[in-house]
Amino acid sequence: MEKRDRNTLSEQSNLCLAIICSTEREVYFSELADALACSEEEIKAYLYELSEFFKQTCFQLSITNTSVTIFIKPEYIEKIPKKIIPVEQKLSNQAYEVLAIIAMKQPCTKQEIDKLRNVDNESVLQSLINAGLVKKLCNVQSQGTPALYCLTEKCIHAFGFTSYEEMVESIGNLAQIKQ
Fold first, then answer.
1. Which H, E and C letters describe the chain, residue by residue?
2. 101 and 146: one domain?
3. Which of 11, 93, 148, 155 allows an S-S link to 133, with CB 3.0 to 4.6 Å?
4. Domain span at residue 15?
5. Tell me: the pLDDT tens digits for 10-46?
6. Per-residue model confidence as pLDDT tens digits over 138-173
């Protein structure tokens, strides 16, 4: 990558940014590499360039081990009039509990979640699926063919983690503190 003024971006970094901004979801490194006809290592270098460029702006990249998304830094969100941006949907305590269970047992069935929480979690699970934080992986070949659920990359980004493993470790640490 050529050396340039820190206030300008390379053509490749600009193309990465255009792709990231044109989607409403996380973009996988493999997708960027295919689009730019380069390696994932080169993509990581372009994303590093973007991260450095964004340090003095209202934007920030959320980068996991496999994908990237862009968001507005919280300190700027607070300054935007509420009538301009949509109201952020808050998660219930039940939703956080279900996410933690899925993170720790992933993949798992609704029945496993129900047993651990001792309540029916159909509506909570559906709201997490609708929010894009959980996805149905497949159906298990057993009685009733229950679905297996797992977290999405969007979930990992939403909570500011770089990997599923980092998220599980953090949840595990919280569980130890509560004991």
1. CCCCCCCCCCHHHHHHHHHHHCCCCCEEHHHHHHHHCCCHHHHHHHHHHHHHHHCCCCEEEEECCCEEEEEECHHHHCCCCCCCCCCCCCCCHHHHHHHHHHHHHCCEEHHHHHHHHCCCCHHHHHHHHHCCCEEEEEECCCCCCCEEEEECHHHHHHCCCCCHHHHHHHHHHHHHHHC
2. yes
3. 155
4. 11-77
5. 999 999 999 999 888 899 999 999 999 999 999 999 9
6. 877 777 778 889 999 888 888 888 888 888 888 776
